[in-house]
Amino acid sequence: MKLCVLNPGGNDPEQHFPDFAGEPSEAAHAPVNYHGFAACTGGGFFRKASAIPESERAVLLLIRHDLKSARNAIVELRRAKKIIGIAWKEAGAGQVAAQLATKSKLQLFREICERADLAVATTPDLVPFFRNAGVRHTEFIPTPYPIESTAWDFTTPLEERRGIFLGTREFETPTRHHLAALLSMKYLAEAMNQPVTVFNVNGWSGRRLLAELRFPEGLLKVIEGRRPYPRYLRGISKHKFIFQLDASAVPGQVAGDALLARIPCVGGDGTTERLVFPDTCGHGRTHEQLFDIAARLLEHEHDATMISDHAHELAQKSLSFTHVARELEQLYARFLR
Fold first, then answer.
1. CA-CA distances (angstroms) from residue 114 to 39, 71, 111, 117, 122?
2. How far is CA 86 from the centre of its chain?
3. 245 near 181, Cβ under 8 Å?
4. Integer Cα distance of 239 and 188 in angstroms
5. 147 Cβ partners below 8 Å, 6+ apart?
């Protein structure tokens, strides 16, 4: 089965994955997040329903803030006799709530659910949500990562790793707790002489906020703007671990980045964090407990290798390309018959 992921009217161009994860490229979207669902099955990512090949019947329709485009797409897919799964593109608890903040949007969402054959919940919290909205069959399937592919192994030797990477980058989103994470790591940076790397995507306002933190000279590395994903992963892999205090209940790309970079992820309550970093994630832990874990990893760096290796063992059974492709095929099989 080749899954066709449809993001009607989205910004990402049409993309095909005949070689599954393929080789890292700075020109194409990486095979992660919802592109990962297409890539793990050798399928494709589309912006228009009409572009999906007639021979391919399994479709995953992404729902986002423009619910009318999803409703129109599902009508078109029904006419084309496709098997239609639905999933939230922005799947954090707060994100879903914001996208259904009016009566008209809620009505549209219920209509979409009633027309769909199935739903893919990328966080466990969304399973009852889809079911109660009218979807006949819902399964929890996390977004996959190509951890089996040697091309996507971004390991840096342990002796070449230094410092802490801040996994979040949004000052303006309260549930990310980005500023709190930075202040927490400032103390460790000073105490253990380990630099903290952070991305600034907020221009001059971000630079002003970061300057106000008054890190000692040389202990805060600021990267301006965004980076192509492979270059981003290479940069992450040169750190001892990723730290975050995100409490957004998202699918969890920060932990997915850590998997590919082959370093631990400390903090975060996303799905990937819970599945593959159960001993260091933020679910059920206080900020103080996460700080203690981070301090321990700086003092005992070989623990990082043990945590990373264990994460890969868990990922093989929960969100590898092989596992997720099998889960998707079983989910759609009952309808494709």
1. 27, 11, 5, 8, 19
2. 17
3. yes
4. 14
5. 259, 260, 312, 315, 316, 319, 320, 321
Instruction: Specify whether the CB–CB gap between 270 and 255 falls below 8 A.
Output: yes
pTM above 0.90, yes or no: yes
Each residue of 113-128: pLDDT tens digit? 999 999 999 999 999 9
Give the torsion sign (CA, 304, 305, 310, 316): positive
Helix or strand (DSSP H, E) at 121: strand 118-121
Q: Is residue 301's pLDDT more than 90? A: no
pLDDT at 99: 87
Write the pLDDT tens digit of every residue in 56-78. 999 999 999 889 999 999 999 99
Per-residue pLDDT, 107: 93
Nearest CA among 58, 49, 45, 114 for reference residue 76:
49
The 3-state DSSP class for residue 129 equals helix
> pLDDT tens-digit profile of 163-185?
999 999 988 889 999 999 999 99
Model confidence over 121-150: pLDDT tens digits? 999 999 998 999 999 999 999 999 999 999
The residue to which tokens 């206080």 are assigned: 286
Q: Which domains does the chain have, with CATH numbers?
A: 4-146+320-336 (3.40.50), 150-316 (3.40.50.2000)
- Find the length of the chain: 337
DSSP string covering 242-259: EE----S----HHHHHHH
SS (H, E, C) 15-28: EECCCCCCCCCCCC
Q: Which two tokens stand for residue 113?
A: 């659910």
d(CA 261, CA 236): 6
Biggest distance spanned by C-alpha atoms of the chain:
64
Name the phi and psi angles at 97, rounded to 5: -60, -45
